[in-house]
Amino acid sequence: METRILKVVRQGEAFSVQSAKAEAGQIQKCNIVLKELGGKFENEFVCAMLGSLAACRFYEGDVVVATLRFSTHEYQNQVFQEVLATDIVKLNR
After folding, report:
1. Would you give the distance in Å from CA 5 to the centre of its chain?
2. Strands 78-90 and 2-11, bridge-based pairing
């Protein structure tokens, strides 16, 4: 895991997904796009926020400290990378 200072580009709405780990069989998920500070062409990350974190609302331009977990998985002979935001805290301006 890595902790970084990033800027929010955009955030989608939360929705329910199936989860074998959740008691009710479903968990809330929300996607957020975060960008490194520094300029127009810095790295961007499309991250998933799960559970109670998916209910948190961030807005374009918010500067946040985020802990990101990078992982990969294979499905039908293709490899996919996932970025999970395990914690996000907005920095006060």
Report:
1. 13
2. unpaired
